[in-house]
Amino acid sequence: MTHDDDRSLTQALEAAREAGRRCALATIVATKGSTPRKVGARMIVDPDTGLVGTVGGGCGEAEVIEAAYRVIETGKAQRVNVDLTDDLVSWSPAVCGGVMDIFVEPVSPEPS
Amino acid sequence: MTSLHPAEAARLLVEIPERGGSVIVATVVGDNQFTGNRIALIVIENEEPELRGSLSLKSGTDSVIQLMKNILEDPRASDGLHELTVADHLSEVYIELRRPVQELVVVGAGHIAQPLAHLGALLGFQVTVIDDRPEFATRERFPSAEKVIRANFSDPFRETPLHTRSHVLLVTRGHKYDYACLIRALRMDPPPAYIGMIGSRRRVRATYVQLLEEGITHALLDRIHAPVGLDVGAETPEEIAVAVAAELIMVRRGGTGASLKGVERIVERFFKEDK
User: Which domain holds residue B42?
Assistant: First the structure.
């Protein structure tokens, strides 16, 4: 994450909080093999405004977004394992040959 | 005290490095009742370390804090997972670490300075541009710079003193101006993170002759990156700026500057032609 990425992510989290919206924060906490983004990459899933940041795009990210909606609904954090090792010959951007371990947590508008 | 809110933690990760401090955030990410609990440790030079938030654990907080302190002291540490005993259970703690923001000081506000300031900001540097000509040292010419300063080159760093996080790029319009700034940067103790000077071989040599006469040692001369940038055949100001930015990345990350194709040699290693 560059300093600018950190900044836009912070602004998005604070905007959601001020508006009283519940959102989810996804963080790549570990990777194996080659992955589109590295440990530390973060993404916010805000049901009202969409995505801020990226955890790599493609099918892998779609799985994370699905998990984020579950997390927002249940209020319970979840670990998502995204496997990008299959189908190495396809040209999808998700094909990198690695595995990502992603922590998806709810962000409530109230102070925790 | 309760767990640090994700938005508050995110803000600390931005603000503390801008103030020249380090910050480390620990989040319990193991599957247990404490998942998502967060604390932050803030360390600013000459100030007492400060803890924000609470993990709300019955036991184990001390070992998390000790882990955070150890990571802070490891210069090669980065974000990542750590296994720890938290409240009598083995759990995972995810660490986020931000060091003080690095600064890029562009001395000279001419045509190369513009793409340089822009790229510097893109790479996460706090950019300062200095020139003695008011018509060049303007906000309009450097929208992505944090500061644009009009200063005399005989004392260019008075308003923004250099420090160990400073990356100084000398791109003034003349050798004599570079020289005045260079000697100040070289005499700094501790030295700035990077000193680069643009110029032809002749111009660089002439500057070094003058510096040696002033009593600057060979070891100090060797710290200067001049001519500045990686050899990519750059011609235009924009191309030169990219070559310089690439060198800044190389210094920051410890790369070699070589083409990855040549390093990996994938065709040669994996696709040998059948004879």
Answer: 6-98
